[in-house]
Amino acid sequence: MNKLQRERKHDETVLFINQLRYGVWLLGVTAWLFAIAERMIAVSDGAYFSSKEIFQTLIICLLLMTWLYLQPETNQAPVSLRSSHIISQEYILPYPYLCQIYHLLNLKHLETIHNFSLNNLKISSVTHVQATSQGGIIKFQTSLDSPINALRMWRSKNVEVDLILHNPYTVELSIPVYNQKRMVVLFNVLPLTQNEHYFFIDIYGDLQWWIKPLMKVLLHFASCLTLFEDLPYLRALSERNIDNLFYSHKSSSHESMYLYNRYIELCNT
Ligand SMILES: [Fe+2]
Q1: Among residues 69, 104, 121, which one ends one of the domains?
Q2: From the CA of 151, how far away is ligand 1's center (Å)?
Q3: Burial of 89 (0-12, 13-18, 19+ CB in 10 A)
Q4: How far, in Å, from the CA of 172 to the mean position of ligand 1?
Q5: Would the pTM count as exceeding 0.85?
Q6: How many domains does the chain have?
Q7: Which of 20, 66, 147, 240 has the fewest CB atoms within 10 Å, measured from its CB?
Q8: Average pLDDT in the 47-75 region?
């Protein structure tokens, strides 16, 4: 078993344990709610409400409150990131995980596949590339052509965006927003079977408390829309020979495919 397979096995085990803990917690919530409902029915059937019944109901409510407080932490991000967490989404997609990786590392698809949701965003140039031990970084300049572009609500017309391959399963998109802050989108991919994968999207950003609820709704909507746009592209990729694409592909020399080439380099070492 090589290093990648060991890491994948470890991730699958951690995910299974987290889901098991969450399942047990949900079962507990259902049991406490059932106990409260049972008490209420018993009280409504009785002629009067004794102090013993009041005490029992209060104890059950207290235990339910304690149980709710013990909800397992499903967000594994560091504490510093958790405070700026805005939304999470997770999907099971019926495509090999390498299709998702290829899609995430292909800069040009932002201009074509997401032409509608990103309001005609243009990638003008790649400004920096850098290899890291498990991945790489690419910085590129983007511009929004139209003055009435919806994205101008939270970002300038021309900004330098970072795309970071942290490891073979995690990709980060970091976008500067107003007031020297950044919006960070973390994509995590976890193979489920040969033709299915989990896809996790987490968005982070330092927002004022009053704008956070509105941004949550907008970002959930934007995230669903971009995924919806990506589905035909992922399906088309899945119909190609993925092994050829990643393991015997002649790398494109175009610098916008730098991270893709870096990924192939890591796969083949
Ligand atoms: Fe996409």
Answers
A1: 69
A2: 16
A3: middle
A4: 13
A5: no
A6: 2
A7: 147
A8: 76
